Amino acid sequence: MFQPDLLKGKRILVTGGGTGLGRSMTHRFLELGANVVICGRREDVLKQTVDELAKETGGEIEAVGCDVRIPDAVEAMMDTIWAKRPLDILVNNAAGQILAQTHKLSTRAIDAVLGIVLHGSAYCTVAAGRRWIDAGLRDRVVMSILTVSSLTGAPFTVPSSMAKAGVLAMTKSLAVEWGPKGIRTCAIVPGPFPTEGAWSRLMPKERGGNEELVKTIPLRRVGEHEELANLAAFLVSDGAAYINGDAVVIDGGKMLQSGGGGASTQAMLDWTDEQWEALRPKRK
Ligand SMILES: CCCCCCCCC/C=C/C(=O)SCCNC(=O)CCNC(=O)[C@H](O)C(C)(C)COP(=O)(O)OP(=O)(O)OC[C@H]1O[C@@H](n2cnc3c(N)ncnc32)[C@H](O)[C@@H]1OP(=O)(O)O
Ligand SMILES: NC(=O)C1=CN([C@@H]2O[C@H](COP(=O)(O)OP(=O)(O)OC[C@H]3O[C@@H](n4cnc5c(N)ncnc54)[C@H](OP(=O)(O)O)[C@@H]3O)[C@@H](O)[C@H]2O)C=CC1
């Protein structure tokens, strides 16, 4: 589908690249010749992914352990990355999600999600952007992974929706502020793509399986990781050099069918408090 050297010479950081969609994007970037750094909190997960993807693609991949909620950890990660070679591309993919009634959320729960998605994306973006701007480096890209709920809102996933909407505002704002400096910003808005991380949190058995979900999607199926990875590869490549400040939806038409407002979680509006309590993680 692409020239095999589409991303040759590009150094890319994928936050949360050890699992799920971040791993799948990393796989595709490596196949297309990029040099990829992945980060996350679980170093054993990162190491396994590095070993597997190096073997599968023969590409250059490395990992840095980092909790993106901690500003000093983000700065230290960027210093480690820059010591070898500056980044060309940042992909803000790390995220946290909680499915719960909003009025029952503790402040720690709210902060956990906002910290990863909103603050983490801002810390990583500013840390990379400052280094690019100070060094006069141009032709750089920041791409963030959002959710449909960042555009429409959605019940029961409020901290994530708020945080991703904030990252969209960052994407649009920096498109204008950093565009003249040769840094462009863009985003992907995915519909449902099965991953262990998302499904374990959003698709508890109480909700029924994927069968109910696909009825809400015009194409009557969930997304394939390869489809999202190909879109990501295009958007960060020089082929998309005139795309700045936009967010591309890849959801099989789900947002249009539902008319917005988080149709898949709306089905839970009639749940009882007991059903919600059953979902809540038990204190250890
Ligand atoms: C729809 C189908 C597809 C339909 C369409 C598909 C749309 C998909 C959109 C997907 C978006 C995604 O981001 S999917 C990505 C999913 N991946 C992830 O979430 C990976 C990372 N997540 C995590 O690490 C955790 O889940 C998270 C809780 C966010 C952070 O973990 P931490 O270890 O930092 O924090 P913890 O100490 O465990 O928890 C912090 C507080 O949050 C509370 N908390 C944790 N889980 C809770 C819960 N379920 N309900 C209430 N409260 C909860 C705890 O009790 C703590 O509060 P106190 O008790 O007060 O201390
Ligand atoms: N799957 C789907 O259907 C959809 C996914 N998305 C978005 O796609 C992206 C990937 O999600 P998905 O692959 O499904 O889920 P995953 O749970 O697999 O991915 C989340 C990744 O983020 C990392 N992460 C979480 N918190 C931190 C932190 N504080 N610091 C550094 N890394 C962190 C996790 O690693 P670790 O725990 O080791 O830190 C994990 O690798 C997210 O932005 C999500 O919101 C959007 C819409 C739909």
- Described by the principal axes of the CA atoms, the overall outline is globular
Strand order of the largest sheet: 3-2-1-4-5-6-7
Q: How much is the radius of gyration in Å? A: 19 Å
Q: Give the number of domains.
A: 1
The level-1 CATH class: Alpha Beta
CATH topology: Rossmann fold
Q: Whole-number average pLDDT?
A: 96
Please describe the biggest sheet, giving its number of strands, its sense, and whether it closes into a barrel.
7 strands, parallel
- Tally of alpha and pi helices: 12
By CATH, the superfamily comes out as NAD(P)-binding Rossmann-like Domain
Organism: Enhydrobacter aerosaccus
Keywords: Fatty acid biosynthesis, Fatty acid metabolism, Lipid biosynthesis, Lipid metabolism, NADP, Oxidoreductase, Peroxisome, Phosphoprotein
EC number: 1.3.1.38
GO molecular function: trans-2-enoyl-CoA reductase (NADPH) activity
Could you describe the 3D structure shown?
It comes from Enhydrobacter aerosaccus. One of its GO terms (molecular function) is trans-2-enoyl-CoA reductase (NADPH) activity. It catalyses: (2E)-dodecenoyl-CoA + NADPH + H(+) = dodecanoyl-CoA + NADP(+); (2E)-decenoyl-CoA + NADPH + H(+) = decanoyl-CoA + NADP(+); (2E)-octenoyl-CoA + NADPH + H(+) = octanoyl-CoA + NADP(+); (2E)-hexenoyl-CoA + NADPH + H(+) = hexanoyl-CoA + NADP(+). The chain has one domain (11-279): NAD(P)-binding Rossmann-like Domain (Rossmann fold). The protein has helices at residues 20-31, 43-57, 71-84, 107-135, 149-152, 158-178, 196-202, 210-214, 225-236, 254-258, 263-266, 273-279, and strands at residues 11-15, 35-40, 60-65, 89-92, 140-145, 183-190, 246-250. It has 284 residues and is of the alpha/beta class. The protein has 12 helices and 7 strands. Strands 3-2-1-4-5-6-7 form a 7-stranded parallel sheet, with helices on both faces. Helix 1 (20-31) packs across helix 9. Bound molecules: ligand 8Z2 and NADPH dihydro-nicotinamide-adenine-dinucleotide phosphate. Ligand 8Z2 binds at residues 95-100, 105-106, 108-109, 112-113, 147, 160, 192, 197-198, 201-203, 213, 264-265, 280-281. NADPH dihydro-nicotinamide-adenine-dinucleotide phosphate binds at residues 15-16, 18-22, 39-42, 45, 66-69, 93-96, 116, 120, 145, 147, 190, 192-193, 195, 197-198.
